[in-house]
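Hi! If you just cloned this repository, the fastest way to understand the data is to look at a raw example. We've pasted two of them here, unedited. The first protein comes first, obviously.
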Amino acid sequence: MPSFIHTADIHLDTPFHARFTPEEAMLRRKEVMQTFERICQEAKQKDLLLIAGDLVNGRFLSGEIVAFLQRCFSSIPDTQVILVAGNHDPMTDESCFLTQTWGDNVHIFGREMEYIDFPLLKTRIHGRSFSSQHQEETLLTPLTLEKDWCNILVMHGDVVSDGGESAYNPIEKSALAQSGVDYAALGHIHLSGGLNRAGTVYYAYPGIPEGRGFSEEGLRGYFAGTVEKGFVDATWIPVCKRQFLAEQVDLFNCRDSIEAVHCARQLIESKGHEHCYRITFTGNISFIMPQTSVLCEQLKDDCFSLEVIDETRPAYDLEELRKENTLRGAFVQEMLNEISRMPEAERARGELALMYGLEAMERGRLS
């Protein structure tokens, strides 16, 4: 019953320039390395470390990343490291997987379907790497199973319904079921969907271990478990150093902008200061919100990184406003009269136009 850790989509050497300052980007690159090193150290107590593609973010690596990987793998000599290349790090002639030297415990699958036997574990592992950025034809071809052993498939690609298409190795669910393996350790999907089954075949995506943006929100991790003939026992384990968190702060009960900032700080305090936040302020308010750049400046020391979106709306007493002997009062009076003449289905649009007009008067801008 071999034990394993299954990870994928680490994306070492991701630049992070688009979202962070140069200093923050450098720190995030180092943190991705630290997280992968932690996964390798957890694998020290396992028989297998399965890496299902996109270990690195491109075909060309810095010398530091190559040396780092060689050190990580050599630090776990009793663990067999099984690796396939994905769409971000395809097995081209100049791939680091071909041009660099790797330890005896590191096994990297090539461009054709092949297998490696581990007699002491009574396990046969099958795999095939991407040969280019796109693989519109499936890489899953018939396998040569060792029927009395555990059979594992390591592959990067998309599990699709029968007849489904993907530019990234479409793996039809029925084909996966017919493959006959006990466990398919997959990569490419950055969100873990838990341990699944296609017929009698167990399969899983561990997801990306360190999120890179708000499309990879929340906890990130890997799978650890055991596989035996016809059964897999696997647990998903969070591992990320930081999370990307998109949160809303409703300011309905807030009386001023300082209190609004306090509400955001309370949210960050409850979730953790180490994370990356996108905070959206919502609600109808009776005060003028500062520009989002000012809000970011007030909150920048409370978390690792911050984006602020202002979706608040002014709270108005329209009946009082229409009585004003002002341009605003005349505008409200005219708009309310116009809305009252609208068909019911169109009144919401008229009310929104009224709010936009009042915002333009109050703030000097449309939001």
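Ok, and the second one:
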Amino acid sequence: MVVLAAGSFGARQLGSRPIGPLGDEILCRRGITDAVRCDDRSRAPFRGARSRQASGVGTALRAGEGGTGEPALESMSGNIRKRSIAIHGCLGLASLITFACLARGTQRLDQDGLTRETLKSGNREREFLICQPASLPDGEEVPVVFVYHGGTGTAKGTMNLTRFNALALSERFIAVYPQGIGNGWNDGRKTTVSESHRDGVDDLAFFDAMLKWLRDHRPIDRRRIFVTGISNGGIFAHYLAAQRSGQIAAIAPVVGGIARPFDKVFQPAEPVSVLIVQGTDDPLVLYEGGAIGGWDGKDRGAIISTDAACRLWVTANGCFEQSSVAPLPDRDPNDGCRVEATKWSQGQANSEVWLYRVQGGGHTWPGGIQYAPKRLIGRVTHDIDSDEIWRFFESHPKPK
């Protein structure tokens, strides 16, 4: 758990660098939320949860570490200082596989059910966090949900933002939070902004290595392997599923589209059910697609439009081209957002493609916190949250 302390010179974060959404270094005045312990069952479900707002200074506050869309927040006296909103790379965004999988040991953290694992993937030491129920009956195989952080984010920060731990414990699945090299993922974009792209990091091999480790050390259900992520992590979820469609049952990319030029070779071998969550007012990863946004003029690559991404998956899965469209309940009339659900069904192997179009939504995690001013990242919807993502996963396993 990270403690944020506010003092006369503004807030400071103890033990971690203040990171905001999309890999931006941001000090926020509002949107403080408590970090979620792995054993905190009271947090599930999180419907309509509101972020607490900080007021004044001199108060100890808790929040997760940073990353794309993650709660790296600090209470500040007065207005947010311009130099404190240093959005460095504002979106760090965020092959044959020859891997060696060698477990390097387990570090049990200070939260019940939470461990940090290390393994060797290629020539790199890689880390990931795991949260799982304390005990599993003999012979029971459980689902796995991989949760990928955003650009320059962290596994721990995304764990706190998404609150999948409470769901893992109450719904009995294993939540996995991988950590990217240079805090990013090689997601199919052409860019040299992030280390993972510059060095051509093989994050597909890392996924393969984690999955092998889980098969060797945990009783996982191979029919129920799921992937979600935000921003750079959401873009990577598309990229990963298209190339590991035989292993992944369903994905839920949040504010992250299909990368260019990867869309030109997009050809999943097997159906994968998809839930896309995208805000219409996202100023960084645009609903209409195009260049990834930022404030420093750097080339972060591009994505195709949200509608084009849906079409690619609908075609790949062989879904019925006619869709159903319906609004979801407006659980929070004050959040400035409405969610419209579009669904394409009757795909091969019972696959589906769903789009949760968040009208008025920004570059944020649904049900999360307003980790930065709305003028920078847009609004957070509280009409949906991680619970909807899990329900989608739960109802879309691979066929027997």
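That's it. A detail worth noticing about the second one: Residues 103-394 form a domain with the Rossmann fold fold (CATH 3.40.50.1820).
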